[in-house]
Each structure stands twice: as structure tokens, then as C-alpha cells.
Design goal:
This protein is of the alpha/beta class and about 325 residues long. It folds into 2 domains: about 10-100 and about 290-305, Rossmann fold; about 100-280, NAD(P)-binding Rossmann-like Domain (Rossmann fold), CATH 3.40.50. Helix content is about 35%, strand content about 15%. The chain has 11 helices and 12 strands. It has helices spanning about 20-30, 45-50, 60-65, 80-85, 100-120, 120-130, 155-165, 190-200, 220, 240-250, 290-305, and strands at about 10-15, 35-40, 55-60, 75, 95, 145-150, 170-175, 185, 200-205, 230, 255-260, 280. The strands form 2 sheets. The protein has a 7-stranded parallel β-sheet, sandwiched between helices. The chain has a 5-stranded parallel β-sheet with strand order 2-1-3-4-5. Helix 1 packs across helix 11 (about 290-305) and helix 5 (about 100-120) packs across helix 7.
């Protein structure tokens, strides 16, 4: 898709970020787009709000976006866009999400780290330490464990390859068929059941859509091997919480590493805090790198200015 570009060079930065982070984004982006005038939303004039064709956004407030009536597209500095897809479902502008190889590398690093944490029985050793128990647990090679990946987009594919290089057997599931060298891949409802049944450790990297909300439920959890572990780095509502807590309490799951939740920050009275077989993380598995993200955003905008061509846009029907 392409457009005739009018030449307006005012680009609002619209985001719910603190002053320090805003300064970092403004500095990095401005240095990479010397022909543009990047302006925080709060500093825009009424005329600039009307002229803006592009906005760079970080968790933008809908009321502020509504005051930019002539947007052609917005570029998120984050990979997750499900909230914007829901809030701006009737808007005429397109949404571009961040696709950053550095984000994929960081996520793969986290997936490997926490997969090894579960593989080497670290939660059990932590429990033994609390009980002053000196006991070696049986060791299995990585090649004796299967790690399943839900979601084989850029994040999932990189994570799958990293796990494979570390010696694990790796399987992956996606909505449609995909092929990865050395990775057993599955798709569709039947494939979903298969990957749950094979995975000693299951890693969720799925986006939140209408199809994935509540996807990890009792029916699928009961298919997993005895004492399996789960890592959720996707989105919190993908897990059916009642079913998940039941699987933890009955021993269907040995341990879960959770980095994403339906409400963030996780409320102090949430049941996950007190689960002895849950590791709670504060959404830190793959933080955005401001410099590399800025390079990608600036490159996409510079190309649009030169050619009128949009980068890959979000499919609102799919939700990503």
C-alpha cells in the first residue's frame, strides 16, 4: 500500500511514559531523523495536531490519538499491539508494530534462561535450601527434554533455534503451517493438542487475540507430561487462570514462570504471589532496546517519506 506524501514533517510522540524515558526516545529518534520535527504530544499546537500524518506511540491514550484526525499511520515502539487494535478498531489509520531483531534475541535469551531454570530443577533446589535439605536430584540431558513453543513468529522462531542449539528437542506450534530446520512444527487444533502432549516445558509467546484468550485451559493442560513446566512470556489472559491454578495445586504442573498478567502491575492480593510453584516476574523477559527500536522506527519513517510505502501493517482481523 502506498500514499502520496504531503511533506508534513511534524511527528507527534504520543505515549504514557515517564519524563526520563520520553527524553531518551526523543533524543534517539530525533538524531536518526534530522529532516523531521519530533514533538511530544503535550507540546503540539492545534495546527500541528491537524497536520500530523504519522505518530510514534508508546501505550498511547486514545483521547490524545483522537486529537490527531489526519493520521495515515502510527508506529508503535513496542511489539505488543492488542490494546491498540481493540481501542482503535474503527480508526482509519494503519498500525505498525515494532519488529526488532534485538527484541527477538533478548526474548530468546530469556526463554533459554528460564527453560534451563526449569530443566535443572532450580525451583526444587530453592525449596530444599529453605528446608536446609542437602540432596542431589536426578539429572537429565537437555536432549531428553522437549521444549514446546507456542507462536512461531519472529520471537518464537528465534527462541526455538536458540533452544535447539542448546541441545533441547524443540517443537513449535503456530496458527498456520511453518517450517523451521531441526524443529518439529505443528499447526491448527490437532497440532495444539499434540504439542501440549509432547512438551516437558511449554513456552507461550503468542499474541493476545480473540482466538488465544483463555487458550491454555484445563483440557490442554491435562494432556501435558507428568510434572511439566510452563513459561508464559506472551500475554496474561492467554491463560485460563482458574484452570491454571488448579493444575498447579494438583501437581499437573510442577512449576510456572509467569512474566505477563491480566492486570499489571500484579495486584498485591493476587493468588499467583503466594503459589510456591510459581515464579512471578515483572514483565521483564524482553524489554525494548530504545536505540535499536529507534533505528527501525526511523528507517520505516524515512522510507515512507522517500517512497510513500508503508512498512508491514497490523492485520486488525488477526490482531497482530
Amino acid at each position: 500500500m502506498s500514499f502520496v506524501v504531503s511533506g508534513s514533517n511534524v511527528i507527534p510522540f504520543v505515549g504514557q511514559v515517564d519524563a526520563e524515558e520520553l527524553t531518551e526516545w526523543m533524543s534517539a529518534l530525533s538524531s536518526l531523523m534530522p529532516g523531521e520535527r519530533l514533538v511530544p504530544f503535550s507540546d503540539l499546537t492545534d495546527e500541528e495536531k491537524l497536520s500530523a500524518e504519522i505518530a510514534i506511540v508508546a501505550n498511547p491514550h486514545p483521547d490524545e490519538i483522537a486529537k490527531l484526525p489526519n493520521l495515515i499511520w502510527i508506529h508503535s515502539v513496542w511489539a505488543g499491539v492488542e490494546r491498540m487494535v481493540a481501542e482503535f478498531k474503527d480508526s482509519s489509520f494503519d498500525i505498525v508494530r515494532l519488529i526488532d531483531p534485538e527484541l527477538s534475541r533478548t526474548m530468546a535469551e530469556a526463554v533459554l534462561s528460564w527453560s534451563l531454570y526449569l530443566h535443572r530443577d532450580m525451583p526444587a533446589y530453592l525449596h530444599q535450601q529453605k528446608n536446609r535439605e542437602w540432596k542431589a536430584r536426578p539429572y537429565k540431558k537437555a536432549s531428553q527434554k522437549t521444549v514446546g513453543i507456542l507462536g512461531l513468529g519472529s520471537l518464537g522462531a528465534t527462541a526455538a533455534n536458540t533452544l535447539f542449539e542448546a541441545g533441547f528437542k524443540v517443537a513449535g506450534w503456530s496458527r498456520s503451517n511453518k517450517e523451521l530446520s531441526g524443529i518439529q512444527t505443528y499447526a491448527g487444533p490437532k497440532g495444539l493438542k499434540t504439542i501440549f502432549s509432547k512438551s516437558d516445558i511449554l513456552v507461550c509467546l503468542l499474541p493476545l487475540t480473540g482466538e488465544t484468550r483463555g487458550l491454555i485451559n484445563r483440557d490442554l493442560l491435562t494432556l501435558m507430561p507428568d510434572r511439566a513446566g510452563i513459561i508464559n512470556f506472551g500475554r496474561g489472559p492467554i491463560i485460563n487462570k482458574i484452570d491454571f491454578l488448579g493444575a498447579l495445586e494438583t501437581g499437573v504442573l510442577s512449576h510456572a514462570v509467569l512474566d505477563v498478567f491480566e492486570t499489571e502491575p500484579l495486584p498485591e492480593d493476587d493468588a499467583f504471589w503466594d503459589q510456591p510453584n510459581v515464579t512471578v516476574l515483572p514483565h521483564i523477559s524482553a524489554p525494548t532496546d530504545i536505540q535499536t527500536a529507534s533505528e527501525i522506527v526511523a528507517g520505516n519513517i524515512n522510507n515512507f517519506r522517500a517512497t510513500g510505502e508503508l512498512p508491514q501493517i497490523v492485520n486488525r482481523g488477526r490482531g497482530y
